[in-house]
Specification:
The structure holds 2 protein chains of 2 kinds. By secondary structure, chain A is mainly alpha-helical. In chain A, helix 2 runs antiparallel to helix 3 and helix 2 packs across helix 6. The N and C termini of chain A lie far apart (60 Å). The model of chain A has no long low-confidence stretch (mean pLDDT 90). Chain B has a single domain, classed as MetI-like fold. In chain B, helix 1 packs across helix 2, helix 2 crosses helix 5 and helix 3 crosses helix 5. Classes of the chains: A mainly alpha, B mainly alpha. The interface between A and B is large, with 41 and 42 residues.
Chain lengths: 233, 231
């Protein structure tokens, strides 16, 4: 089967525009998911360190369950099945939004939060125990010592693993095409089925994903070399 | 709630239409994961060792391979093989074969990094002592370094296997009849119980993955005791 390459097709014009739109959606959904999962993940990690049993159990159950089920299944759950477990008000609000997009953000957030919680927890464990004891002794409450003493130090240590989680979010966000969010991967498939020039479209999309990964991990390596050395433990 | 939908379709979710038709469902998921980890282990071992080599023509291709694969979403790789196999080989591959190839290639890049970390994690004295007894680099690797390194890496391999099991769900997108596909089929057929169906298959995946994760954690603690350490 002869195949003629037509790079102009995907690098400009209508189809090039599709790729740009797709990239914008990918970046938007990733950014939202990263932001929300960082907040949720921190909360889950802190719950694990409290002394209250139900909170600890909730945190353990959350991380174990969402880490050990496929993201795709979670996406389907939020998209097809969440209406009967969520309260009516939330459902109504969600349906008024772009529901595919919202379901994608929720799934990515919850899935990533479980991983981020584990990273943060290991970061907190890396801080010597005396830090929390000393801060508690100065009269700070548990939450205050977390907020002002422990977390600021923990985050410095876990920046590299966190960033690699963020890169995973960008890559994982390709799965939201299955529920019809028009991200980069979705647009690529669209171009493939419109023009039969899948080769060009896939190459461009792969290069875009690759460029994001390489640039970010290159930056992290520099951070590792320059900054991480300065941290005493 | 319509839990009877699950009761009626449980066999379909577990083994597909087997024994009267094609194998599918959870059984297919497990088969793909096993086939995937087997292939990815050998391919990953090769690339991991190449990456460790001091010869530029060996480590540069391995480095490029690992970075490119790890920087690309798995879904993208699956599409590459699915849509491009006909262009490259002039005939199309069945879905489960091209999905398996993509899974093997994707996972092998991660295994290569595990292998590399495992070998670099051993004390330097091991290699030096082995070379000192007159073994060549290859034979020292084969008889001294790898047996120790691979043993230490077993927990990481198990974790990678868990990821792979979760990743097999992506094969659904190109029509492979595994657990996620079976679930969407049941969902499309019955239409009343998406919540129940997706909770059920999430639990099925969870049971497999959680048992493996727990196993790898225990193993990790055990192995820590026997590791050769830098003194």
């Amino acid at each position: 089967m002869a195949y003629t390459f037509d790079w102009k097709l995907v690098l400009g014009g209508e189809y090039g525009g599709w790729i740009v739109q797709g990239l914008a959606t990918t970046l938007k959904i990733s950014a939202l998911a990263i932001f929300c999962s960082l907040a949720l993940g921190t909360l889950i990690a802190v719950l694990r360190l409290t002394r209250m049993r139900p909170l600890v159990w909730f945190s353990v159950a959350f991380t174990e369950f969402f880490r050990n089920t496929p993201l795709l299944v979670q996406i389907f759950f939020w998209y097809f099945g969440s209406y009967s477990v969520l309260p009516e008000v939330v459902n109504k609000w969600l349906y008024r939004q772009d529901f595919e997009f919202a379901a994608g953000v929720i799934a990515l957030t919850v899935y990533t939060a479980a991983f981020i919680a584990e990273d943060i927890r290991s970061g907190i464990f890396a801080i010597p125990k005396t830090q929390i004891e000393a801060s508690r002794a100065t009269g700070l409450s548990f939450l205050q010592s977390m907020r002002f003493v422990i977390l600021p130090q923990a985050f410095r240590i876990i920046i590299p693993p966190l960033i690699s989680q963020f890169l995973n979010v960008v890559k994982n966000s390709s799965l939201v095409m299955t529920i019809g969010v028009m991200d980069l991967t979705y647009m690529t498939r669209q171009i493939e089925s419109y023009t039969f020039h899948g080769f060009e479209a896939f190459t461009v999309a792969t290069l875009i994903y690759l460029a994001i990964s390489l640039v970010v991990s290159f930056t992290v390596n520099i951070y590792n070399k320059r900054v991480l050395k300065l941290i005493p433990y | 709630m319509h839990w009877n939908v699950i009761a009626n379709n449980l066999t379909y979710l577990l083994v597909g239409a087997y024994p009267h038709g094609e194998l599918g469902g959870l059984a297919m998921t497990i088969l793909m994961a096993l086939g995937g980890i087997f292939g990815a282990f050998w391919l990953g071992l090769v690339f991991g060792l190449m990456r460790l080599s001091k010869k530029r023509w060996l480590y540069l291709p391995a480095l490029a391979y690992i970075e490119i694969i790890r920087g690309t979403p798995l879904l993208m790789l699956i599409f590459w093989f699915y849509f491009l196999a006909p262009v490259l080989w002039g005939r199309s591959l069945p879905g489960h074969q091209s999905a398996l190839i993509s899974l093997i290639i994707f996972t092998s890049a991660y295994i290569a990094e595990i292998v590399r970390a495992g070998v670099l994690g051993l004390p330097k004295g091991q290699m030096e002592a082995a070379r000192g007894t007159g073994l060549s680099r290859m034979r020292a690797m084969r008889h001294v370094i790898l047996p120790q390194a691979l043993f230490n890496m077993v927990p990481s391999f198990v974790n990678q296997f868990v990821s792979l099991t979760k990743d097999t769900s992506l094969a659904f997108i190109i029509g492979v009849n595994e657990l996620t596909k079976a679930a969407t089929q049941v969902n499309n057929r019955t239409m009343v119980a998406p919540t129940e169906i997706f909770i059920t298959i999430a639990l099925l995946y969870f049971v497999i993955c959680y048992v493996l994760t727990a196993f790898s954690r225990r193993l990790e603690k055990k192995i820590m005791r026997y590791q050769a350490r830098q003194r």
